[in-house]
Amino acid sequence: MSNNYIVELEDVDTIYEGERVPAIRDINLEIKIGEFICVIGPNGAGKTTLLETINGILSSTRGKVRVIGQDIKKFGHSLRKEIGYVPQEIAVDELSPFLVEDVIMMGRFGKIGILKSPSLQDFEIMEEIIKWIKIDDLLRRPVGKLSGGQLQKVMIARALVKKPKILLLDEPFSNLDIKASRDISEKICHLHLSSKLTIIMVTHNIGSIPVNSNKVMLMNDGKITGDNLSPKDFQLDQLKFLYQVKG
Amino acid sequence: MLSSFLITTLIGASLAGVACSLIGVFVVRMKLSSVGFCMSHAAFAGSALGLVLSINPLALALVFSSVVALIIGPIAEKSKLHPDVILGVLFSLMLSLGLIFLKFSPGTALSSTAMGILWGSILGINTREIILLGIITLVILISMKLFSKEFRSIMFDRKMAEASGINTKPFYYLILLLTSAVVSLSLKLIGGLLIFALIINPASTAYEFFYDIRKIIIFSPLLGVGYCFLGIIISFLFDFPIGSSIGVVSAICFGISVILSPKRRKG
Question: Which residues contact A89 (CB under 8 A, 6 or more apart)?
Fold first, then answer.
């Protein structure tokens, strides 16, 4: 495999505990540095499992996963310092004793390292991201009191504050209104173009695929069923098959 | 003589109050209440065995609760059994063992020591135990200072802490082991049956008032010490067991805090 690839999956299966059928299977994937990949597919297609297998939170049961040229199983913790991850949902209870600014800075804790406190530079980076995402007004709010959309923005800021080399986005617009979705989508596109950030974005909404994504990948039933597509390449029949629409 | 006894009592109570309620901040937030409950009964079983075998009850309490901590950690992480099931089994096993050991503890003097383990007895606390409580309190404070980032991140969401590049496992086990040490060393003060009241109640009360974890970490030990002092006063006044007095005081205060909590106020 070439050094050009920042994410490499070779014959990968991931099975959840207590399950017999892999949530994703026979996955072969190579993503180049700076690529913007969108993964689309219906619910239960294995999109989230794919992201969590790439960042090593879920351990693959077969095959090899390499990120930045290293085995994610062996070097998961150090590699995750370079991977920003925005989950589709995070359970935050209403009484959670954390302020938004704390939660955002936590995204950088792995990178700061053990026995060290956040430096002035860390706070400057956080401030820059906060202004960029436009969540200055939320900083002193308890994180449990945020709306779904606000929390999603906070989690995006948390992922970006570590200045990652790879950004994994799981349905990042699912709780955002149209204006906020467009705004964040434009920002992500800008980030991709300006900093050559590698982005893998999962969505079930075809309408939310950013225009400058390099390719679109289709997933269904735990497998990659279509690859190397651009949004304009979609055929109506393909989509009907993917989402099992009749007629 | 009286003043020296009173000073020993108050120092012991203060240290137990600080140590238990600090560790309680983790136990409550990480939903480890049943783990603490299980450890306290393991410590009780260990102490009872110590009495039977004429081995230092404190040392065996520490061994038993640490073993339970080391069993629960991996099982809860890897086993397909629900942690509550494992805890239920271990809890009943430890309580049963403790009662069996007590049955065989010889002599009336030992029986009173055994009752002290169950209900707590500040009268029996000695300088060596106070030093040990002081050491564990210091270890907790130093750990919380050194690993503040990691602990806060895990308390917010363990999976997200992993995603940010923190290896959460050593910190999770450190919390379990510190809990087992605190439980064992505070056993003599409040008793095996009620020690988790001093772990859970001050921290739960503090959580009712603040959205900032740093404030909770400061407020919880203050409450812990306050409950201990109030419990001791009530115990002396009405000749109640100290553990029960602390349990009742802390539970009433928690109830009041739920009513007064700004977090639950509307508008």
Answer: none
